[in-house]
Amino acid sequence: MSPDTPGRVALVTGGSRGIGAAIAADLHAHGYRVAATSRSGTAPDGVLPVSCDVTDADSVDAAFCQVEQELGPVEVLVANAGITRDGLLARMKEEDFTEVLDTNLTGAYRVIRRAARAMTRARFGRIVLTSSVVGLLGSPGQVNYAASKAGMLGMARSITRELGSRGITCNLVAPGFISTDMTDALPQKVVEGYLERIPAKRLGSVDDVVATVRFLVSDSAGYVSGAVIPVDGGLGMGH
Ligand code: NDP
């Protein structure tokens, strides 16, 4: 167990696969007691699997109750669950917009609001939201997704102003192009277009993201809040 993380309880939403599963596994490996939530309710080895749909406030409450019972109050929250419903604006249906906002942004609000009670009582909390380079850079075909990820910035900074005096931090990690199920769905042409624009000249891996999240949730990062940390090989520089 790391001396910096005395067995703190962490909950990672969207922890069944991809970036969230990697974050959950990494925190477990570093001495945290970790729960991973998702609709499918699967989790990496050593991590408590919990079913939870972030679009449903009752489901979120039930998931937190289960984690509180089995592990204790949540001290570290990684709001990572996210979806895409890409399409050009002219053809984007309103439900594609609202569904993405409801999962990515309102979903983050639901879990943060539920977590904030115990964090405020404990006068300690670490909240990290998985945003995206696309939130500040924009992306054709992702008006819904970019809006949801940009909205996280105002959310994190408002939470920092509301709860900063209670020992609670709230930050964004903004990954670039990371190889997961989400990006595997993209056409090869789009992938090649990204590769040309990434100064690191490679796609990112989930391991590139986990170290940054581990820092942001650590006890020693208590004076870092309202920040956006890009993990994008330089793709979003200047934004
Ligand atoms: P994946 O599609 O691999 O994983 C998404 C995760 O979110 C799954 O665990 C999924 O589980 C969960 N999820 C989706 N909808 C819901 C819901 N309604 N309630 C609860 N859980 C849900 O995506 P990635 O790992 O690639 O992405 C993770 C996060 O990182 C997302 O927020 C994404 O926007 C962001 N990101 C990804 C980038 C990339 O290049 N991959 C770049 C920048 C940001 P289940 O389906 O079982 O519910």
Automatic annotation (TrEMBL):
Molecular function, one GO term: oxidoreductase activity
Keywords, sorted A to Z: Oxidoreductase
Record keyword Oxidoreductase present: yes
Recorded superkingdom: Bacteria
SMART domains found in the cross-reference section: PKS_KR
SUPFAM superfamilies attached to this UniProt entry: NAD(P)-binding Rossmann-fold domains
Domain Ketoreductase: 8-181
Keyword Chloroplast: no
Pfam families, A to Z: adh_short_C2
NCBIfam families, sorted: PRK12826.1-2
Family: Belongs to the short-chain dehydrogenases/reductases (SDR) family.
Name of the featured protein: SDR family oxidoreductase
The organism's taxonomic lineage, starting at the top: Bacteria, Bacillati, Actinomycetota, Actinomycetes, Propionibacteriales
